[in-house]
Design goal:
It comes from Hymenobacter mucosus. The protein is built from six helices and nine strands. By secondary structure, it is α/β, with parallel strands linked by helices. Helix 4 links the parallel strand 6 (about 115-120) and strand 7. It is globular and about 50 Å long.
Length: about 270
């Protein structure tokens, strides 16, 4: 049996996606739901993004899983091998407009529409080698601030803009942007992490504004606090597993109604104060 994945190198606007077929073992039987979805997930190579990818695949959906270097994402490669034809791995750097454009063309080469976009990619101070850690008073730099804002706020907006036409062509399209309780002005009761908190508040405003503009076109856009997760970003002391959060986010996404467009919600569907 054969499976295929899309591996798109970030080489500029003019680059066409290359498709590779790889021989692999037998397909594991998916859990089929009555309505299959086409789902795009950013930052899918680890943590919550990887778990969302896994659970959407288990439900029989087609998933476009993006990361900066999918060829180096061993867990995604393994999922692709066990879900032939259902998982498409796409190179995407959400801070690069050229990369976003190339990724958009890669998805369009496979499907004319998307039903779900999950803006999951993000950075947290010190969680990774490229995540700025200097977010304490007295250590701020403009470069660190702009890096965090580019990834956590501007990147998701540009990704959403690029894929909006495919979402409008989808079935009951939903945009779910993963925010944080740290981005709530009402809940904010500490100093650190300054840039992370401010970037998530900016993401909330971007997606609230987007919801006001696209809601009448049948697109539902919400921001969701996924909870404090036991991931590389959240740390081992966190109280919530990625599998539980992903399950809740998928359930929430499936059950969204038009009146919830523009909402800020927890992974369990409870309102979060702005």
């Amino acid at each position: 049996m054969w499976w295929a994945f899309l591996l798109v190198q970030n080489s500029g606007i003019g680059t066409e996606p290359a498709v590779f077929d790889v021989n692999c073992g037998p397909l594991t039987s998916p859990i089929l739901f009555s309505s299959m979805k086409r789902v795009l997930i950013t930052g899918a190579n680890r943590g919550l993004g990887l778990e969302l990818t896994r659970q959407y695949l288990e439900r029989g959906n087609t998933v476009f899983a993006t990361s900066r270097q999918p060829q180096a994402a061993a867990d995604l490669q393994a999922l692709a091998a066990s879900h032939p034809g259902k998982l498409h791995l796409i190179a995407l750097d959400i801070t690069s407009e050229a990369s976003i454009g190339t990724a958009r063309r890669a998805v369009r080469a496979v499907t004319a529409g998307l039903d779900v976009l999950i803006n999951n990619a993000g950075i947290f101070p010190g969680a990774g080698p490229e995540d700025p850690a200097n977010q304490r008073l007295g250590e701020f730099t403009s470069d660190n601030a702009l890096t965090v804002f580019q990834v956590n706020a501007v990147g998701p907006l540009l990704v959403t803009q690029a894929f909006l036409d495919l979402l409008k062509a989808g079935d009951k399209p939903r945009i779910v942007s993963l925010s944080s309780g740290q981005g709530s002005l009402t809940w904010k009761a500490s100093g650190e992490p300054y840039h992370y908190s401010a970037s998530k508040a900016a993401l909330n405003m971007y997606m609230r504004a987007l919801a006001a503009e696209v809601g009448h076109q049948g697109v539902i856009s919400v921001v969701v606090d996924p909870g404090w997760l036991r991931t590389g970003m959240g740390g081992s002391a966190a109280t919530l597993s990625p599998s539980d959060s992903a399950r809740g986010i998928i359930r929430l996404t499936d059950q969204l109604h038009a009146e919830e467009n523009g909402s800020f919600l927890t992974w369990q569907g409870q309102p979060v104060p702005w």
